[in-house]
Structure formats: C-alpha cells, structure tokens
Design the sequence.
C-alpha cells in the first residue's frame, strides 16, 4: 500500500491521481510498494518503453537495415530524454509515471489489456494497444496517446539523419 | 550568445544574492517590453529590462528545430492547455515571440476596436486613435508590403481565393534585407527580421538601459496602492526557476510585459487585488485548425517567407457564427510530423510527401460571443502557469466550418487530395467527398487537433474597474505604479496577428507613462 504521504503524492493532480489509481489497483494484488513504483529506475523504464514503442510507431519510417534502424532508435531515445528536461516539472512527472507504469507488468495490463511485456508483443499488437488509448473512454489515456505520439515523432524527425526519405535538407547558410 | 557586458547580465551566472534598482523595471522583453524599453531609455529614465529566456543573437540561429524549440520557445514549443487539447507556440527568449514569429504585421481591425468600444467602453477614436502609433511602429520596424512573389504554399492560398472569388491580401512584414529563407520561426540568421531583439532592445541598451536575461520574476511585493519591489530567481539551463539565489529589485515604476500567460501568472503569484475578478480570466488564443493538401507539384513549404498572403473572407460572418482568418504556416519536419495524423506506415507515407504538401490554417476569432469567453490561467504546484481553455460548441461549429472552407479552397487551388488534421479524418479525393466527410467528424478535444500561436487577454483593459484589470493606458486599477504593457491587456482576440497591435498600443501607453512620470503624478 502507499507509504507515508510523500511530497510527490501530495502535489499530484487529477491526471496523476487516475494513473496512480491504476497503479494502486495493481500494487494491492502484487504486494508491490506504491512508492517504489513512483521512484523506480526512471531512465531504465522510459528506455524500455521507448525501445518497445518506437519500432511500432515509426514502422515504415525507420531504415530497413537492422543496424541503421537500431541506431535511429537510439538517437530518438536520446532526443526524447534531451527534450523532456525542458517540459514543466508537472508534465515530466506525468510522463515518467506513464513510463514506469508501462514498464511494470501489472500497470501495463491495466493500461493496455495485455499480459505480455510490451517488448514481447508483435509490432501490430503494439500499434493496436497504442490506438486503443486514442479511442479510450479514459481522458488520461487519450492524453497519453497524443502526448507520446507528439513527443516521439518530434524526437525522430528532429534529427537530420532521419530526413533522407523527406527529400529535405536544412539550408546551410554559413 | 550575446556576451555579458555592463549593459547585459546573465542571471544564470550569478553566484550570490543580488540587489538592483532602477527608475523603471520592465518584466519581459517581447513586443511590449521591447517598445517600452527604447522609449523610456530615450526619455532619459534608468531602465532595467528582465527576461526569463536567454540572450541569443543571429550566430546562434542555426535553422534547426531541435535547437530552436527548446532554446527559444516556452516549454520547448510543446506548451499545452490543461487538457492537452491545444498546443501553444509562444516565444521565451530576449525579444520574446517577436524573435520567432513569422513577421505578419496587421493593424487592429476596425470591427475589433468598435466591439471594444461597445462592450468595454474603450475609445480609440478621434484624439485617441491608434493610427499615428501604427505609423510610428511601421516606420520603426520597416513594416511594408512584401514585394516578392509568395512561395508556393502561400500562392495556393491566393489561387484558391482567386478561383472562388474570395478576398485575399498581400501581407505586410517587418523585415529589412530579407533573403526569403523561410526559417523565421527559428530566429532570423541574418538579422533581417526587425524583431525587438535587433531593433528596440539594442537601441535601449545603447542609451543606458540594462538587461538581465535568464531571470524569472517570482513575485511583486506591494502595499496599499504601491508596488515596492520584486523578487526573482535565475533559471537553470532548462529554463526552470532555481531557488538558491534571490534577486531583489526596487523601482519607482513597474511594467509587467511577460505575455498573456506569464503576466497574469506573476500577478496571481503576487496576490494583487482583483476586485473585477478578471485577473487570469478571458484568455484568448485564436484557436487554430489545420488542413493538409497533397499536390502533384512541389510546394516546398519550408522555403520562402512563411506568410505572405491571408484571406479575411470568413473573419466577420454576418450570421454571428465564429469567424476565422485563413493563413498558411511554414512547413518544417518536426512541425509537420507532430501535426500529421496516423502512425506507422500511414504517417511515414505522408511524411514522404513532405515537399508536395500544402498546409492552410484557420485562426478563429475568439472572445466576441457569450459562448466564447476564453480560458483561464492558474498556478500549478511549482507556481508555474497552466492555461485551461474549454472549447465550446460554438467554437467547435466554427472549426467545422473552417475545415470545410479550407478543403474547398485547397481543391479549388488544384489539390489532388485533402487531409483535414483530425484524428478520424482520411485523405479525401474531391471536394464533394471532403464536404460530406467533414460534416460527420466528431468535434472533440484531442480528436480534433487545435493549435495556437497568439495568446491574448488575462489582464484585460476596460474603461472602468468593474470590467477590467487595467485602464486603456495599461495602468493597473489598484496599484498605481504598475502598468501592464503586452497582449494580456487585450479584451478579446483581434481577428488579426497581434504584434502590430501590441507595438502601437504600448507605444501610445509608454508616451503617456513618460508624461505621467515627468509630472510626478503617478
């Protein structure tokens, strides 16, 4: 159950409350500590989730050669992490909570309806999962869909290495 | 990056608490703060200009979104309303949004001024008319009709209007020596754009004004009817306020010009009197919807002056419905990728047509109807601003009409397919198909993509203190040595891009302030 009220808990808004409510439902069954869920290894969790989502979301855009595709995904994950720091702390916390939940087995179930770890789903299954959030009755999942989609597409297409298929190069003025 | 000098300090380099004083302190260096700084410095007053963003110059502007958005925009160009349904592009750098805007310069429409007179008692006619100040700002910033043919993205807007018999206008731009590059939104790399960054701010500094960048003003301290001082903190390299170092600044007069989200947020943090109940309320956005079109020929919307044509065909409909202005945006990879709908192959296929995409936008004129009363600014747990902007049925109906107009226009201009930017829309191959499909789209938050590049209101002016936060001169009704000189004073949206309105209004109000300060009747 929840430990002593931490500062993080107190400052939660409604969105965070719904997300953590989903987490709470899972922690009761599993005996997980909710506090740990919020403070687990954030970077590892976001990398895990991004590495699973990006190949699905960017299917058709990523290079076909596996080594190049892996490099593009690594570059995009780095770009996501670089841009997160500029978001308001409020939004950083919400995104991190989402990454942590998706990286946890039962949190993932609550959000996605899938038992398998995200990385073990096929690409079409991951896309279906993602699209289901868009059409969810829960506003917080709709927001997660649109927020992640924008963050991930921005990170991928911000990198000049990924512009070849657009027939676009930024002008070199100097 | 502009170096530290006697005239410029970078607060992020401070290692200990500091105190400053000045005749006039200006919070925010955008369209309002920039104009005021130059006029006040010219008048011989000691001016201290404060800016939360960094002081960059043309050598920093590398024309890449990955640098420009985090460094020059609020929240890395990803600012959102509370329910995430509206994305907001707003500058946060020395020069404010003028450093990153698309240079469109339009005088305040007469219909807007008439509405303000009727609803808010604001009289900008006769001796109070703004036209001399429009002329002064146009001269100062070299605002003139763009003489170069429009790029293909704008030309399609013009051609569509011509074929349908709709009104269109060639845009006035604040540029001098523009090379038609198309990267205005990432900072002008050749100082052609006459933003505050290259015009009024260097001029004010040359006349003795001082600038502190990377400084976030947290609170105004006031007593009775006077502001006595302010406290501020440096920001970190991600532009988040740091708490370790405190800066205190005293001044005779305080000008708040932190933009229509930042200004009300500062006044809310300072708990200033708000008897009208309008502080942080009635925030307007020109909520904007988007329509993509695929052409056979290259459009290359990333190249050339981003905005050179607009159409006012639908801004003032006679049936009382929400009006909208038609323009086009510049097309760059991140802007496009985040707005195009779909995922995986479908999204990738659209991106591969990057150079053949034409994009039209429709900016809704909000604030002129009982069902269009805008949004409200509040503070989050970190005391940072958060804008709530509920979209009413009235506005959704306006947006649907706007999607229809844009599809009709794009097909008239020769599009082979039109894609309204709505997450349930498809590419439509004819105007007839688009017309019946758009009529069926569910107009709901997030499903219908809505963006904004113009934030207005939140500290509105009015002829009496029951209806506004400030008077027509921008003077705060309760705190006598406090002025608000930015887009937050606008009592509605404008139905036109706002920079020239802010320049002219602030020019007028700064002259009036100088005269008040000289006569000691604060």
Sequence:
């Amino acid at each position: 159950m929840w430990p002593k009220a931490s500062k993080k808990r107190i400052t939660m808004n409604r969105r965070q409350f719904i997300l953590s409510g989903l987490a709470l439902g899972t922690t009761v069954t599993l005996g997980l500590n909710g506090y740990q869920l919020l403070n687990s290894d954030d970077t590892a969790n976001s990398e895990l989730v991004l590495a699973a989502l990006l190949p699905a979301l960017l299917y058709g855009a990523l290079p076909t050669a596996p080594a190049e595709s892996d490099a593009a995904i690594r570059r995009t994950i780095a770009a996501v992490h670089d841009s997160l720091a500029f978001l308001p702390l409020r939004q950083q916390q919400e995104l991190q909570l989402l990454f942590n939940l998706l990286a946890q087995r039962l949190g993932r179930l609550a959000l996605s309806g899938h038992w398998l770890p995200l990385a073990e789903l096929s690409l079409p299954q991951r896309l279906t999962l993602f699209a289901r959030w868009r059409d969810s009755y829960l506003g917080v999942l709709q927001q997660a869909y649109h927020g992640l989609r924008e963050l991930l597409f921005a990170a991928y297409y911000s990198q000049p290495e990924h512009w070849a298929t657009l027939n676009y190069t930024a002008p070199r003025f100097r | 990056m502009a170096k530290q000098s006697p005239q410029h300090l970078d607060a992020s380099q401070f290692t200990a608490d500091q105190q400053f004083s000045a005749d006039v302190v200006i919070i925010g260096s955008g369209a309002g703060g920039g104009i005021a700084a130059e006029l006040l410095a010219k008048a011989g007053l000691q001016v201290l200009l404060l800016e939360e963003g960094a002081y960059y110059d043309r050598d920093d502007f590398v024309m890449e979104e990955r640098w420009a958005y985090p460094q020059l925009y609020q929240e890395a160009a990803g600012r959102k309303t509370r329910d995430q349904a509206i994305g907001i592009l707003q500058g946060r750098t020395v020069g404010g949004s003028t450093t990153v805007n698309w240079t469109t310069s339009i005088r305040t429409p007469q219909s807007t001024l008439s509405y303000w007179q009727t609803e808010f008692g604001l009289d900008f006619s006769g001796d109070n008319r703004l036209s001399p100040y429009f002329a002064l700002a146009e001269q100062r910033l070299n605002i003139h009709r763009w003489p170069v043919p429009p790029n293909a993205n704008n030309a399609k807007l013009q051609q569509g209007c011509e074929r349908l018999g709709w009104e269109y206008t060639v845009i006035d731009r604040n540029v001098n020596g523009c090379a038609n590059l198309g990267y205005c939104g990432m900072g002008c790399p050749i100082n052609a754009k006459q933003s505050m960054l290259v015009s009024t701010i260097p001029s004010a500094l040359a006349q003795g004004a001082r600038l502190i960048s990377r400084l976030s003003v947290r609170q105004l301290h006031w007593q009775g009817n006077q502001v006595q001082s302010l406290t501020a903190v440096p920001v970190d390299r991600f532009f988040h306020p740091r708490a370790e170092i405190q800066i205190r600044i005293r001044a005779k007069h305080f000008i708040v010009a932190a933009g229509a989200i930042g200004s009300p947020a500062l006044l809310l943090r300072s708990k200033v009197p708000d008897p009208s109940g309008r502080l942080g309320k009635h925030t307007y956005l020109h909520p904007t919807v988007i329509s993509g079109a695929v052409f056979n020929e290259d459009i290359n919307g990333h190249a050339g002056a981003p905005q050179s044509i607009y159409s006012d065909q639908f801004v003032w409909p006679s049936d009382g419905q929400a009006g909208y202005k038609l323009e086009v945006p510049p097309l760059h990879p991140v802007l496009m990728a985040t707005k195009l709908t779909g995922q995986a192959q479908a999204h990738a296929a659209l991106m591969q047509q990057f150079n053949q995409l034409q994009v039209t936008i429709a900016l809704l004129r909000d604030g002129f109807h009982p069902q269009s009363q805008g949004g409200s600014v509040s503070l989050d747990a970190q005391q940072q601003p958060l804008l709530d902007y509920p979209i009413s049925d009235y506005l959704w109906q306006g947006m649907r009409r706007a999607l229809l107009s844009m599809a009709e226009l794009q097909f008239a201009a020769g599009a082979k397919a039109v894609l309204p930017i709505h997450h349930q829309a498809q590419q439509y191959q004819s105007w007839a198909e688009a017309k019946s499909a758009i009529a069926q789209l569910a107009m709901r938050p997030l499903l219908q993509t809505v963006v904004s590049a113009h934030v207005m209101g939140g500290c509105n002016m009015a002829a009496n203190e029951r209806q506004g936060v400030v008077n027509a001169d921008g003077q705060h009704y309760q705190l006598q040595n406090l002025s608000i000189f930015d887009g937050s004073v606008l009592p509605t949206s404008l139905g036109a891009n706002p920079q020239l309105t802010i320049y002219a209004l602030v020019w007028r109000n700064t002259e009036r302030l100088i005269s008040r300060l000289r006569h000691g009747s604060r």
Q: What stands out?
A: The mean pLDDT of chain A is 79. The two ends of chain A are 59 Å apart (CA to CA).
